[in-house]
Amino acid sequence: MAHRKTKQHTVNVVKAQFCAPENISYLDLFEGFNELYTINIATNIDFLANLLELFTKVEIIFGNLALVPSTLENTFAMQRNTLQELYKTEHYTNFKEKYAQGNLNIYLADAPLYPEKLFCLKNTQTGATRVILGSNNLDQLPANSDRNQALVYFDDENAFNYYMNIYNDFKQNNSEIVNENAWEITYEDTQMLENLPILHKAKQDSEHIYPAVSKTTIVKTAEYISDIERLAKDFVDIPKADRKGQAKITNDKIDTIKRKTLENIQVRRAKFEKFMPQLVIEPERNRAFYNEREFNFRPYRGDVKRDAETYLQYMEGFNTAVPAKNIEPLKFEYFKLMSWCFLSPFLARVRTTIREATVTDEVFTYPIVALLCGQSNAGKTIYASLLMKMMTDSALYKAFGQNNFTKTRIDSLLCDIKGLPILIDDITQTQFTNNSGNIIKQEERIIRETKPENLNYYSAILLTANKDLNSLKNELTKRMVVFHVNASWNNEFTRQQKSPCSELIQKMRNNFYSEYLAKIIPHINLYLSQINDLGSSSIDLYNISSEVIISIFKECGLDIPSYMRPLTMKDYFDSRAVNEIMIKFFQRQYRLNRDFFEVNKKNNQLIFEDKSLSSVGKMTPMRIAESLPPELEADVVGDKVIMRLDSATKFFSTEFKEQGLLNKLFGR
Fold first, then answer.
1. Which SS3 state, helix, strand or coil, does residue 363 take?
2. What does the pLDDT look like over 538-560, one tens digit per residue?
3. Most buried of 319, 342, 504, 661, CB within 10 angstroms?
């Protein structure tokens, strides 16, 4: 399609005519003039000092906010830094004398500047003029750091007038002079603030607007520097520079550099993968890293399909592992867990954004703690291992033991691990009861206090527990996602199928998850922008996550199994889903111990009292009441739990009936 011309976006273009290249010294470039007006000269004080000796009048506007995010805070910081640089330089006395003589004025910018340097030179006796345009490296010319840098200069009056208009406009509207008080040497905070030019301007013109600069170029520059510094750490045994600052790589060093660098990368990454894995997803930059290995957001379709088929093959194994009636519910619960795990690396950023943009309780919508509970030997841990492999393509990261479920240990893990869910296995009822309150309610506190830079990357927590974890308080369930597995592998599968499960996990790569990230990141960015702009969002990320997963299976040409369907927030937070443990508990008790229940239809009451003599596994009435949803209006009177009959009938899916005399006599 032909390119359509548009005049919507225009840019100033200086039409110039090429004369000839020259090779001259920087002194020759600036000599022959007695006035200098310059914008955007960097803080190379030696270069400035040399230039001052050539002129009788100099005006300089310091600052280059195009290299840092342009906020008022950064403007204040830049001006303070520039003053400090002037105060501590050995040329300060000379600068101060020239200022006192009226030969030097320095201005500090309070607005973004273009990155090129601008020098306007004039000879007031002959009328000669010159304009020099240079990159940021121009002030390095005395050291001949870049002999190939091509500077451009104009010696005609039209160019001088054009660029002097730019200079004067910027000086008047977007900078403020360093006045006589600021030339006094001081490092005192109070005096430093008194002398900030931006505050002087604010006193004179409180209506002045401080323009912002687009963050695109800013962020790209900072990101590039950050990326280079990160990648440079991998290279070891590099030849050191000699006294002249020169380094050579000889042929005999090449193989050593490659070998030792590779060894360094492998050792460092193995350490992180096993103990402190780092899954860092940067949605605003559309990229992700696992232990500094960048994800490929354009994986080959065949590789994605191979991962998808491996997952389906793994799930098919449950067809012979568990009773037929439990197969579909188990697979559905595991699909819910898969979707949550895939979404979990974004939860820290989501929660941080919500907390900073709004005071609502929407943060509870995306808790970072998940509990996978149910019967033992249901493949909970090995399935979680499959999901970790899908997300990282690494099998080194293992589940942590139950002893790690303490406030101190969890705080440490949250500070050390990024992104990837912290998997803690086989939590007991006692451990959960003793530690869950402090951990689940305050998971973000330790990050804010210890490593605030990790606020966007701290991990979710995935706990597994067996059936003996039999009650959850409402104050915790609103801060958790709960998954229930009501099935157990049969003995034959336990003996014969573990090896195939391990083989499938080993076969799995992270191509499917790479495709997932590429598809979901635009939705994450939209959600975050809505939170920042509006304070809330109608986007259901649980739904988006499941839809993205299903779409990938469809794009691979695979049939969508019945246990995969689009999920919503309700699938994770419906009171029945959250309280599955209590539902099963009451259904079992009513089936086996009818005498524990008393029905009072007149008062719309269901009364439960555990009359068993043994205290093993017995829940206190208060724990039962705290674990039931609010709509049951559960209350404790002595050893009895009293709740609304109509709500209990609906919630427990059980028709509670008043007992006749014979049933009461025989305890049925």
1. helix
2. 899 999 999 999 999 999 999 99
3. 342
For residues 214 and 542, give the distance between their C-alpha atoms in angstroms, rounded to a whole number.
Answer: 33
Look at residues 400, 393, 396 and name the one whose alpha carbon lies nearest to residue 431.
400
Q: What is the pLDDT of residue 395?
A: 77
Cβ 91 vs Cβ 104: under 8 Å: no
> What is the distance between the alpha carbons of residues 228 and 286, in angstroms, rounded to a whole number?
18
Reported for 159-165, long-range contacts at CB under 8 A and 24+ positions apart, including other chains, are 159/14, 159/129, 159/131, 160/120, 160/122, 160/129, 160/130, 160/131, 162/14, 163/118, 163/120, 163/131, 164/37, 164/120
Give dist(CA 626, CA 641) in Å, integer.
10
Residue with tokens 């229930």: 484
Is a pLDDT exceeding 80 seen at residue 387?
yes
* Residues 629-639 pLDDT 10s: 788 888 888 88
Residues 457 and 431 sit within 8 Å (Cβ to Cβ) = no
Which two tokens mark 372?
Answer: 């996978």
Sheet containing 605-608: which strands, arranged edge to edge?
597-600, 605-608, 640-644, 635-637
Distance CA 75, CA 66 (A): 11
Mean of the pLDDT values across residues 90-98?
87
pTM above 0.70, yes or no: no
Q: What is the structure's pLDDT at 145?
A: 44
Tally Cβ neighbours within 10 Å of residue 305. Answer: 19
pLDDT of the residue at 108:
86
* Per-domain residue ranges of the chain: 35-269, 299-573, 581-666
CA 283, 285, 288, 289 torsion-angle sign: negative
Say if residue 143's pLDDT is above 50: no
Tens of pLDDT, residue by residue over 572-607, are: 876 555 566 678 788 888 888 888 899 998 889 999
What's the start-to-end Cα distance of the chain, in Å? 81
Within 13 Å of residue 512, how many CA atoms lie on the same side as its CB? 29
